[in-house]
Each structure stands twice: as structure tokens, then as C-alpha cells.
Amino acid sequence: MTNEPAMIAEIVIDAEVVPTAEEPATESMHADLLESKAIQPPDSGVPRTTKVWLWWLLLPIRVTRWLLQLTSLTILLAVASTIPMLQFASLGYMLEVGKRIALGRTPRDWIPGLPKAGRLGVMAAGAYLTWLPVGLVIDYANSASIIVPGSPSARNWHIAAWLSFFLWMVHVCWAGLRGGQWHHFLWPAPIRFLKNFWRTQTWRQAEDAVWNYSVGLRIPSLMWLGFRASVGAILWLLVPSIFIIVGMQANEQPGLAGLGLVGGGMMMAVVLFYLPFLQLQMAREDRFRAIFDWRPLRHEFQRAPWAYFLAFFFTLLLAIPLYLFRIEKLPSELLWLPSLFFVLLMLPARMLVGWALRRGHRDIPTRFWLSRWAAWLLQIASVPTYLLFLYLATLTSWDGALVVLLQHTFLVPVPFLGR
Question: Mean of the per-residue pLDDT values for the chain?
Fold first, then answer.
């Protein structure tokens, strides 16, 4: 009985002392761990050097891949420019690029959908290269039908042609189901094909992938943006174009002809000053009325006069060579050629306009008056050259005087298609 209180006291002491003794031990252990990490050399030294070497070694591959993606995107935009209604998507895409630059996005986000375009380009190139032997077999079959019609040789070649065409279709579909990479067209993976090609789940996943890919292209929104920009541009160009056309048609009335040409030319010059920037302002604000709100551009010009001048100058300069494609109507199989040049020349122009809007939208003081006046005078001096080529285009183009209204500088490349 006398020993029980002592035993209880020892238990209580142990219960109280043990937890309090563990805390300093834990803290010291963390301190030792931190000290050991501080003493050790940093782990990022060697991996960082390795990453730098890998980055430089893989740079040519990245640049090549980026160029291929950009080439695929340019071709897709050119093809879309030759298809009715999709032409608005081509113009809307270029305005979207300028809009992203105007909003101050990072260069990585300037060109949307670049990987998607690259994937589609790889699939198109893979399908074309694998089609070459199939086309050769079909050509032999047609030759056999012409040389020895109805013979067993011609029949066998026709069977081989149909069989090769069927196998090509299956091969392209299977490569697309696996992701559409270049190596998928080189090796068909026959064992995996026999296991998965016939499953319903495989085709459901392919359907979902195609749907997500199509939605990611944002074609309806780009078409709507291009359509609004085209309507706004036509409304701006309509009045000066009517004056110029009336002046050109009034051959027997010199006074009316001079009034139409001079007055229309002056109004056209004023429209040219604002319209490239108004279209991108509408895209930036996502508001159709913004294409008629020219007052903010005057204040933005005062903040970045030289950026506005460079964007305006190169927009007109890059549009001039395209008038050469309107001298004579091209065959239907070559319609993609002027549209390709349209994308190559007008896309940088939209990017420059977006860059000028971004610089002018900054909250900075206006530039010195001498700088503003110099940029403005140079901007005025660049207009007559463009108007001269526009007038020459009315004499050489199959559209005649209508080319004044249908300017590819602000519209979709509809005039390239001819009548």
C-alpha cells in the first residue's frame, strides 16, 4: 500500500516528461536536416546545366517543328480563303492574332491553334505520301484497261487498285485514331490494330477527339468576327467608292468627274487613316460599334505616332502586290495561290496594327508635337502611292471600278475568285 503512491507518481512523471522531451528532439532533428541540406551542394546545379545543353541541342528541332506548324497554318488559312463563308474565318483569324497582340499577350499566345494546324498538316502530308504507291497502282490499272481492255491482266490490276485503295483508307484512319503523328503513318502497329480497331470504345474516343478538335478551332466565332469586320469596312468604304466610281464614269462631264475623283480620293484617304486600326479596335473590344469610334485612335496616335505610322505604311505597302493577281482571272486549280500570298502579306500587317494599338493604349504622356507632326506627315505622304495603284487596278482588274470598294486590304479575298 505504501508503494502505490510512488508508483502512480512515477507513471504521471513519465507521462508528463516524455512528450515535452520529444519536442526539442524534433526541433533539433529539423535543424540538423536543414543544416545538412545547407551544407550539401544544390541539386539544381547539374540538372540545370543539362537542361541548358538539352535546350540548345533541341532548338533546331523546335524551330523546324514551329516552321512546319506555321506552314500548315498558312496553307489552311489560304484554303479557307477560297471557300465561301470560311473566308470570314480566315479574316477573323488574322484579326484575332492582331487582337492578342493589342491586348498585350505573350508572344507564345500570339498565334492560336498552331499545334492543331501542325497536327492537321502532318496528317495531310502522311496521307499524301502513303497515297503515292496507291496512285501508281491505279494508274497501271487505267493503262491496262486502255491497252488490253477486258483482259485478265486488266482485271487483276483493277482488283489490286481497289484493294490498295481500301488498305490505304484503313491505314489513314488507323493512323488518325492513334494520334496522327508522322511515325503512325510509317508503322501501322498490326498487333494493336487487330486488338483495338474493331472495338466500339476506340471509335467513341475518336469521335470525342474529333469533336474536341473541331470545337477548339473556334470557327463560328472567327467567322462572326471576320463578317463584322467586313461589314464595317464596306460601310466605311461605300461613300468614297461611290464618289470615285461616279467620277470615273462621268467622261463627258469634266466637272463632275473631277469632283468625284478628287472628293472621293480625299475621303478615301481619310478612311485609310483609320480603318485598319478601327477593325482591330472592334476585335479588341468585341463590340461592333467600336469600328465607328475613331476618337480614341486620335489620342492613341499621340502616344505612339511612329508605331501607328509604321503599321499604316506596311499595311498599304504589303497590300499593293496583291493587286497584280487581279489583273486576270486565274484558273480554278490556282485559286489557292493568291490566297496564299494574301495570308503571307496581310497577317504581318494585322500584327503590326495590333502592336501599334498596344503601344498607343498605354497610360503614358503624349509625344512631343514635332514627333507627332512628322509621323502624321509621313503617313499622309504614303497614301497617294496606294491610291495610284488602286486607280490602276480599276483599269486592269476584271472587277473594274468595283475594285475600289472590294479592297483586299480590309476584306476577305473574295475578289480573287473572279466572277
Answer: 81
